[in-house]
């Protein structure tokens, strides 16, 4: 399996089979454990009747989508705002990519354009875009020319982001790396 990110074979398979699920998982990967973020597209699909569809998400009443996200167990620590962001992502995909998430990367002629495509999406800032470019390159095989420059630090081996998870051992390293980075940032903020 190329994307063993959730600890659940069915949820991991969805990430491999459905580009929208992978993009939503990356969108949700903040302030929750990585496994939760990337499992949530599977849970969302189940709550929506067995299909993830950008057109359906884009057209869905925002209050209904927030209710779906908030249903226990909630799909994210911040179900309301992340439901809104998911709806906005789906709308952007409908407006710019015919509702097909894979067109975000398939239409990019190089890494710089892929970065621009990603950062134009709701919820994808510079860092998230760089991590996703590295994930696409390292785990999915999407490697437009210049992807390494576009991914920056995350293109390197051993930086331990979600792009480097290939099993339980590497997942533990990612956790350790994130903990150390947070502690370093906290210590730095305390000295200011």
What does this structure look like?
With 192 residues, this protein is an all-alpha fold. It has a single domain (9-190), classed as Endonuclease III, domain 1. The protein has 11 helices and no strands. The longest helix is centred in the C-terminal third of the chain and has 23 residues, at 168-190. It starts with 8 loop residues before the first helix and ends with a helix.
Nutshell version of this structure?
This protein has 192 residues and is mainly α.
- In percent, how much strand structure appears in the residues? under 5%
Q: Which assembly state applies to the chains in this document?
A: single chain
> What CATH first level would be assigned?
Mainly Alpha
Q: Count the domains.
A: 1
- Secondary structure tally: strands: 0
In angstroms, what is the radius of gyration?
A: 16 Å
CATH architecture field: Orthogonal Bundle
CATH H-tier superfamily:
Hypothetical protein, domain 2
Terminal CA distance reads 44 Å
Largest sheet: none
Please give the count of helices: 11
Q: What is the H/E string?
A: HHHHHHHHHHH
Kindly state the mean pLDDT as a whole number? 95
Low-confidence stretches: none
Protein structure class: mainly alpha
Estimated helix fraction: 55-70%
CATH topology: Endonuclease III, domain 1
Overall shape: it is: globular
């Amino acid at each position: 399996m190329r994307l063993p990110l959730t600890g659940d074979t069915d949820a991991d398979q969805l990430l491999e089979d459905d580009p929208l699920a992978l993009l939503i998982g990356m969108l949700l990967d903040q302030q929750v454990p990585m496994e939760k973020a990337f499992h949530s597209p599977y849970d969302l699909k189940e709550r929506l009747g067995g299909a993830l569809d950008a057109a359906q998400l884009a057209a869905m009443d925002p209050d209904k989508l927030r209710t779906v996200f908030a249903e226990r167990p909630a799909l994210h620590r911040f179900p309301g705002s992340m439901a809104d962001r998911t709806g906005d992502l789906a709308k952007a995909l409908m407006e710019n990519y015919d509702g097909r998430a894979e067109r975000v990367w398939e239409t990019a002629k190089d890494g710089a354009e892929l970065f621009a495509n990603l950062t134009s999406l709701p919820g994808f800032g510079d860092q998230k875009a760089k991590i996703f470019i590295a994930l696409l390159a390292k785990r999915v095989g999407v490697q437009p020319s210049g992807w390494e420059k576009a991914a920056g630090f995350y293109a390197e081996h051993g930086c331990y982001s979600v792009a480097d998870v290939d099993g339980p051992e590497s997942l533990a390293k990612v956790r350790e790396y994130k903990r150390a980075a947070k502690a370093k940032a906290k210590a730095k903020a305390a000295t200011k």
